[in-house]
From TrEMBL:
SUPFAM superfamilies: Aminomethyltransferase beta-barrel domain, FAD/NAD(P)-binding domain, Folate-binding domain. Gene3D superfamilies: 2Fe-2S iron-sulphur cluster binding domain, sarcosine oxidase, alpha subunit, N-terminal domain, BFD-like [2Fe-2S]-binding domain, FAD/NAD(P)-binding domain, Probable tRNA modification gtpase trme, domain 1. Residues 452-535 form the SoxA A3 domain. Residues 840-920 form the Aminomethyltransferase C-terminal domain. This is FAD-binding protein. Belongs to the GcvT family. It comes from the Bacteria.
Length: 931
């Protein structure tokens, strides 16, 4: 298609460089310097999509970040990115874009029937309209209809990078005010960063002020680029302002290499020169294609040499629109200006001006074809045929970043908008962002009387009627109004809608706009790619998983791996055709009847040494470390200052001044850091060294009735006949230097053999070679979970939560026996800690199917909604031949033998509360014949 609306002269495009692109399968041309929006308009394309809720035809409201109407999907090879603003998409050769939220096309959208159901889709309809007979009857259809573009299903193949910079001065916005501020700072020698979202430097000087303004901007840019202390970041959107003058920005890079760069900036001072956004006027039919901001029409003419309409109506309540009207007239359009004010000192040569009049409605379907002009009382005076309506309801300074910084906003009567007020960080707003907009002589006009849909928020199809409904239903708080109507949400973030919406709400409730207040602006200011936030930290780098020292050995034996506590560990070793559940049950039976091999290398290992090591651990553990003799081990709980259980494990006294502390696998780094913090911050008088040695050792556990015989067959110089439970020995096993601990998480006699990490595979191979006569079976984490639940052993974070105290686990004896203080002790005497109805760990037996983890214990009466506790762990026990579970239940220990009702996903179950130990309650199997 030829560029039918491209002017023969003018603009800042490079007419020598023709670019070809496609939109909705049709071929078009544009020029270097175009955006997708300007190129489409140059080709006469005004209809580019359908609206969010009602699927009304939508065109361009603006031509940049302010446009929430013209959202497109851009495809680059196999990559697809939805919901991009056409005015922010830089035109490039071969670009392919598609309209969104329409089937099959914007001209013929099947979902346009939503307009028939418009009376049902009012503000908050999902809270009240579709409640009968059942919300779930409608939920699926409503959720499928929600949203605009379709999220890509494939992996993001683009590359993103992160960068960091600090500066003395950060200037956001490279318009006339921003360029001046950057020059003033840079000339003093200050390290200056100038960030501009547009691909061109100059801001409004690119389309307003004539050639003199453009030349001044070009000269300022050249001077800044020549200074060594200045960094100019074009195509860089500053989207977040955080504490301590930290800001975040996304830079859009060239088409080769990385796609985007996330900047994390720290500035001594910030100057916000981000400008202001023109506000729409609220009148019936103001969302039709061909109705746009007057400044957008002026920018199309001045910057892109595009005449967006040949018969234009400019509707305004202030003086700024007169420049737009004059620019359109000079470009060859027939222009009528409708001014709601009785008179104005401004002028627009060649433009017909109607004072004390308003545009009360529009005509047209897929494009505007007429404006209905009325007096202020709503009496129609004439109908103006047109193909363009430019509206100007005043200007809103871009205060989003200032608000994010913690600054307060105030309402300025002179511009009828919110401007920066008191700052709490070193930040200053200048130019349009500060409300310096010249003489607008604006007269408030928040809503034009008349019938029909009057849109306030184009992005979310929020109308003036929706705001009226919210006010009638008492959602008068701006935060409630926002969430009830979706005003200012989504891709727009209130850029064109907030002030109008708040003012209309104020008028309906008898409050001035300044008294209504504003919502708290949150990052990001504009949508950003999730890939930019992640940067290079994707795939294995997103959360690096640690591999076991004997990883390859497990792979060779068919292990099925899953993540457990940051480690890539075998869940089970299924045979061909065997399910994970069946494999875990088989492995658990093997541990009870023969011998099992479990890789416990992730178990935390921290060496605590020094003259005060015993005193230190006495303060850390509920149990007492100082009375433990070398070569012996003891189970202990660690609490936080609230008395809550945060970790458990076995600690071993290696020597008088040296201990080996075992933690849970997922808690090793956290506990090591905690111990260091206590030593460095609270107990600096203690002479103690804490060293995390987990990565130095591999731990292979041999467990089961035949474990001791298997260890003997391996060959060891340790006296196994004198090696009872909870003892520690050092010696050689299978010819390797080893540490061996008699501790168990299975309930069977177990030997935890620790060797140098590099020797793990060799030891595992030796154990497997000697284990066949004993029925040795490698077991994974799933089998270990079965075995520990049968024995009633707890798992931190599974059978505990952020409120669990030692007595809740039946472990108050250690507290009572200990005379000295320890972390969290005083919290155990608080009234809440001694309530008799606390959640306590108990067992559950059921004759039915296995209970679901998370199933709730119902209170007396069995009414869902009031919980008496919940299931924390649940398995089918191979040793018992029935389902068993652990649960946290109110006053559970006082209710042993009670039958309770459990509720999960609409199904009720019955179970009996029992002791949490289901297997070998006397512990005979642990001792392996030793006392």
């Amino acid at each position: 298609m030829t560029q039918v609306l491209r002017l023969a002269n003018g603009g800042l495009i490079d007419r020598t460089r023709m670019l070809r692109f496609r939109f909705d399968g049709r071929d078009f041309t544009g020029h270097s310097g175009d955006t997708l929006a300007s190129a489409l308009l140059a080709n006469g394309v005004h209809l580019v999509g359908r609206s969010f809720k009602y699927h009304r035809p939508r065109g361009f409201v603006g031509i940049g970040q302010e446009d929430a109407n013209a959202l497109v999907r851009v495809a680059t090879g196999d990559q697809v990115e939805p919901n991009l603003k056409a005015g922010e998409v830089v035109l490039r050769d071969g670009l392919e874009a598609f309209s969104i939220n329409c089937r099959p096309s914007p001209r013929h959208d099947l979902r346009a029937v939503h307009q028939i159901a418009a009376p049902l889709l009012i503000a908050g309809f999902y809270y009240k309209t579709f409640m009968w007979p059942n919300w779930h009857l409608f939920e699926g259809a409503i959720r499928r209809a929600a949203g605009l573009g379709t999220a890509p299903e494939g992996r993001d193949l683009d590359r993103y990078v992160h960068a960091y910079a600090d500066c003395d001065l950060l200037v956001v916005g490279a318009g006339p005010a921003g360029l001046t501020a950057a020059l003033d700072g840079a000339r003093t020698g200050a390290r200056t960063i100038l960030a501009e979202a547009d691909f061109a430097i100059g801001g409004s000087a690119l389309w307003r002020g004539g050639s003199d303004a453009a030349e001044a901007a070009t000269a300022a840019e050249a001077e800044l680029r020549a200074l060594p202390n200045v960094t100019i970041l074009s195509r860089t959107q500053v989207f977040g302002y955080y504490d301590h003058n930290a800001l975040a920005a996304v830079e859009y890079l060239a088409d080769h290499g990385a796609r985007q760069r996330l900047w994390k900036l720290r500035a001594g001072r910030v100057i916000l020169a981000s400008g202001a956004i023109e506000r729409p006027l609220v009148f019936a039919g103001n969302d039709r294609p061909g109705v746009m901001l007057a400044s957008a029409a002026q920018a199309l003419v001045g910057r892109f040499a595009v005449l967006p309409g040949r018969r234009a109506v400019i509707f305004t309540n202030n003086d700024s629109a007169y420049d737009a009207a004059a620019a359109l007239a000079v470009a060859g359009a027939e222009v009528t200006l409708v001014d709601s004010r009785p008179a104005s000192a401004a002028s627009a040569p060649g433009v017909r001006i109607l004072h004390d009049r308003v545009v009360s409605a529009t005509k047209g379907v897929r494009h505007v074809r007429a404006a209905i002009v009325a007096d202020r009382a709503g009496r129609i005076s004439e109908t103006l045929p047109c193909d363009l309506i430019g509206m100007s309801g005043g200007w809103s300074p871009i205060v989003h970043l200032f608000s994010q910084s913690g600054g307060k906003l105030r309402f300025c009567e002179e511009i009828q908008g919110f401007v920066p007020g008191e700052a709490v960080q070193p930040v200053t707003a200048v130019g349009g962002a500060a409300g310096a907009l010249g003489t607008l002589a604006i007269e408030p006009l928040w809503e034009v009387p008349g019938r029909g849909k009057k849109f306030v928020d184009f992005a979310n199809d929020v109308t003036a009627h929706d705001i009226a409904i919210a006010m009638r239903e008492n959602y008068v708080s701006v935060e409630h109004l926002k969430r009830y109507t979706t005003l200012g949400m989504g891709v727009d973030q209130g850029k064109t809608s907030n002030v109008n919406g708040l003012a209309i709400a104020g008028a309906l409730t008898g409050r001035a706009p300044g008294k209504v207040g504003t919502t708290k602006f949150r990052p990001p200011y504009s949508p950003i790619a999730l890939g930019a936030l992640a940067g290079p930290l994707v795939g294995p780098l997103f959360r690096p998983l640690r591999h076991l020292p004997a990883h390859d050995w497990h792979v060779a034996r068919g292990a099925l791996f899953e993540e457990h506590g940051g480690w890539w560990r075998p869940s089970a070793y299924p045979h061909v055709g065997e399910t994970l559940e069946a494999a875990a049950a088989r492995e658990a039976r093997a541990a009870r009847t023969g011998a099992a091999l479990f890789d416990g290398s992730p178990l935390g290992k921290i060496e605590v040494s020094g003259p005060d090591a015993a005193r230190f651990l006495d303060r850390v553990y509920v149990g007492t470390a100082s009375t433990l003799r070398p070569g012996r081990a003891r189970y202990g709980l660690m609490l936080n200052e609230n008395g809550v259980v945060i970790d458990d494990g076995v600690f071993v006294r290696l020597a008088d001044d040296r201990y080996l502390v075992h933690t849970t696998s997922g808690g090793a780094d956290r506990i090591a850091a905690m111990l260091d913090e206590w030593l460095q911050c609270e107990w600096r008088d203690l002479d103690v060294v804490v060293m995390n040695v987990g990565s130095q050792w591999a731990t292979l556990t041999v467990s089961g009735p035949s474990a001791r015989d298997l260890l003997a067959a391996l060959g060891t110089d340790i006296d196994l006949a004198d090696f009872p439970h909870m003892r520690f020995r050092e010696g050689r096993v299978a010819g390797l230097p080893a540490r061996v601990l008699r501790a168990s998480f299975t309930g069977e006699a177990s030997y935890e053999i620790s060797v140098a990490a590099g020797a793990a595979s060799g030891l595992a191979t030796a154990i497997a070679a000697k284990g066949a006569p004993f029925g040795l079976t490698p077991i994974g984490v799933e089998a270990i979970m079965i075995l520990r639940i049968e024995k009633g052993y707890l798992a931190i974070g599974v059978d505990t939560d952020g409120t669990t105290l030692p007595d809740d686990l039946g472990m108050a004896g250690g507290v009572a026996r200990k005379g000295s203080d320890f972390i969290g002790r005083r919290s155990l005497d608080r009234p809440d800690a001694v309530r008799p109805d606390r959640l306590q760990l108990v067992g559950l037996l059921t004759d039915g199917p296995r209970l679901a983890v998370g199933a709730h214990v119902l209170r007396e009466g069995g009414v869902p909604g009031v919980s008496d506790g919940h299931v924390t762990s649940s398995v089918d026990s191979p040793a018992l031949g029935r389902p068993i579970a652990l649960a946290l239940i109110r006053a559970g220990r006082a209710r042993l033998g009670e039958t309770v009702t459990l509720y999960d996903m609409g199904i009720r179950h019955r179970a009996t509360i029992v002791e949490p130990v289901f297997f070998d309650r006397e512990g005979q199997r642990l001792n392996d014949g030793h006392s």
